[in-house]
Design a protein that fits this description.
The complex is a heterodimer of chains A (341) and B (224).
Chain A lengths: L7 E12 L2 E12 L3 E5 L6 H8 L7 E6 L2 E2 L5 H8 L2 E4 L11 H11 L4 H14 L15 H13 L5 E5 L7 H18 L2 E6 L2 H7 L2 E6 L2 E7 H6 L4 H6 L11 E9 L5 H12 L2 E10 L2 E10 L4 H10 L3 E5 L14
Parallel strand pairs in A: 3-8, 3-9, 6-7, 7-8
Antiparallel strand pairs in A: 1-2, 1-4, 4-5, 9-10, 11-13, 11-14, 12-13
Helix pairs in contact in A: 3-4, 3-5, 4-5, 5-6
Chain B lengths: L9 H38 L9 H16 L2 H7 L1 H8 L5 H25 L3 H9 L4 H12 L1 H27 L1 H11 L4 H29 L3
Classes of the chains: A alpha/beta (341), B mainly alpha (224).
């Protein structure tokens, strides 16, 4: 695993992109470490698609710089940009394989464009087919492959020119849950084996939880949160931690609901301590979740209590070192009990 | 006056086969030249379109207007009005060889539109994928646009060939020869109903055969 002092492969500074009077990117600063799998999440309209187009050089930022592997993309002419794009392998949501070519020909296509000799191409195609676990399907046309198999071929194609970066734009959004797990497992496996840096653009938190080492939250054209997955998840003040560890549905109630957030490390009895505190203070646990992401354990518990008792409970829980927020359930007069950490 | 009818008719015996060959000659050569000139024109229409490979509103508009003018002139009028051009190219205005010129001129804008429609149906994502691999515009044009649109392009050529057969019958009316001339000179002007019917039958068979071959070929290159 790369340490915190790892060198950056991709650096965006102050990237702005304006279409007419629509500001798609509003000063994006982002650093992506070499060899990591970095997720970029955000609601639709946050600027994810624009960010992809800028990262690939298909679009130029209005201002700001994008550096990939030490090259400033906006400073390149068209020929040099075409060369630079071969350093970025792109995986698409809808795969975009060419229907008129077989799986093997699709994987070979970027090498043809790059002028790789035929014999070398053939050997590399077989190597890549094996890497994605489809060694015997090279002769199949895309229409003869399942959605997951197509995406495997898409990944093999993206790796054909041995890029520094594998840029995946919603790679699993068109796939079912089981296939998503397989594809994300494959991406992690490939990173471990060949050390390629992976950027995954997605709107699915599940993808970040399953595959990413680091994550950035894009909103209104800016990176508003960013960091290693474990660190982000462990910080209850972040929006990402709440989105990555969602509380199960809390039943409708006329009582006030407190949202308790706590983190722990394996071996530490934090969970039982939470229950001790709740047992001492009173209140009714109505929903909860607890899970381990990497080296961090994260738990969330919804606690129902009468309105007049909320202040006392919140104070008691915070004194016990827990992060507590008020949740409003059908009660317009209820207010946030505490502000973020 | 003891001339036979149907297959005993000396006109049918002596002229139906040569006329069929002339029609085929006109069709084959005009198809060839039309594809040669109309395909690039169609691709140029796609490439210069607003979201195309080399967006250029001015060029796109000019090409589009030229194509529209070409398509709106009735064939029979176009054929007569370019007679001097035909003479310049072929040296004569009579015979099936001469008819190839107006047929080609009339079919180019028609085919260019068919090509435009076929190529436009290739998904933008495939083009972007190729661009991401560092493909040049020319590589995208040949390796992605034409190759992916091939089944539709084969269908377009089929439509073109059949259209040219029917146009060639019109060309026959003013000195072009072929089945159209036979039908008009004997079937119509000399009231030989048998010649008229047989000519039409041959044309129907030609059209059927070409449509079948086109469909087969299109399926052969279609891997969607």
């Amino acid at each position: 695993m790369p340490g915190p002092m790892e060198e950056q492969l991709i650096t965006l500074s102050e990237v702005r992109k304006v279409y007419g009077d629509v500001v798609a990117l509003d000063g994006v600063d982002l650093e992506i470490d070499k060899g990591t799998i970095h997720g970029i999440v955000g609601p639709s309209g946050a600027g994810k698609s624009t960010l992809v187009r800028c990262l690939t050089g298909l679009d130029q930022p209005t201002t700001g710089t994008i550096e990939v592997a030490g090259q400033n993309l906006s400073a390149l002419g068209e020929g040099a940009l075409r060369q630079a794009r071969r350093r970025i392998g792109m995986v698409f949501q809808h795969v975009n394989l060419l229907d008129a070519r077989t799986a093997a020909e699709n994987i070979a296509y970027p090498m043809r464009i790059a002028g790789v000799p035929a014999a070398e191409r053939r050997a590399r195609v077989q190597e890549l087919l094996d890497l994605v676990g489809l060694g015997n399907r090279g002769g199949a046309y895309p229409s003869q492959l399942s959605g997951g198999q197509k995406q495997r071929i898409g990944i093999a194609r993206a790796l054909a020119t041995d890029p520094d970066v594998l840029l995946c734009d919603e790679p699993t959004s068109a796939l079912d849950a089981a296939t998503t797990r397989q594809i994300l497992g494959l991406i992690r496996d490939i990173r471990d084996r060949i050390g390629v840096t992976v950027v995954i653009i997605t709107h699915e938190m599940e993808v970040v939880r399953q595959a990413c080492d680091a994550v950035s939250l894009l909103d209104h054209g800016r990176v508003v949160e960013s960091g290693r997955l474990a660190a982000v998840v462990a910080d209850p003040a972040t929006r990402l931690s709440h989105a990555l560890v969602p509380l199960p549905p809390v039943p409708d109630t006329d009582k006030a609901v407190l949202d308790i957030f706590f983190t722990s490390t394996p071996g530490e009895p934090t969970g039982s301590r939470v229950f001790d505190v709740v047992a001492r203070l009173g209140g009714d646990i109505t929903a909860g979740t607890f899970e381990t992401l990497g080296d961090t354990q994260v738990g969330r518990v919804a606690l129902s209590a009468p309105h007049h008792d909320v202040e006392r409970l919140a104070r008691g829980l915070r004194e016990a070192g827990l992060h507590v927020e008020g949740r409003v359930a059908r009660l317009p007069q209820a207010r946030e009990v505490t502000d973020h950490g | 006056m003891d001339e036979g009818t149907w297959f005993d008719n000396p006109v049918v015996q002596g002229q139906l086969w040569p006329a069929t060959l002339e029609t085929l000659g006109m069709t084959v050569f005009s198809t060839l030249f039309t594809v040669l000139l109309g395909l690039p024109l169609g691709l140029a229409l796609v490439a210069t379109a607003p979201r195309g490979l080399v967006p250029n509103v001015a060029v796109n508009q000019v090409l589009s207007v030229i194509v529209n003018i070409g398509r709106s002139i009735p064939f029979i009028i176009l054929m007569i009005s370019i007679l001097p051009f035909t003479r310049l190219v072929v040296g004569t205005t009579l015979g099936w060889e001469a008819a190839v010129v107006p047929l080609t001129v009339a079919a180019i804008p028609f085919f260019a539109r068919l090509v435009e429609t076929a190529v436009f149906s290739v998904e933008q994502g495939k083009i972007e994928a190729a661009q991401m691999m560092g493909a040049s515009r020319f590589q995208v044009l040949g390796g992605v646009l034409v190759r992916e649109a091939l089944p539709a392009l084969v269908q377009s050529v089929t439509v073109l060939v059949i259209t040219l057969i029917s146009y060639s019958a019109m060309a026959g009316a003013i000195g072009g020869g072929g089945l159209g001339a036979l039908a008009i000179n004997h079937g119509y002007n000399r009231f030989q109903g048998d010649v008229m019917v047989l000519t039409v039958v041959v044309i129907v068979i030609l059209v059927q055969a070409i449509q079948m071959m086109g469909d087969m070929l299109s399926r052969l290159v279609d891997h969607r």
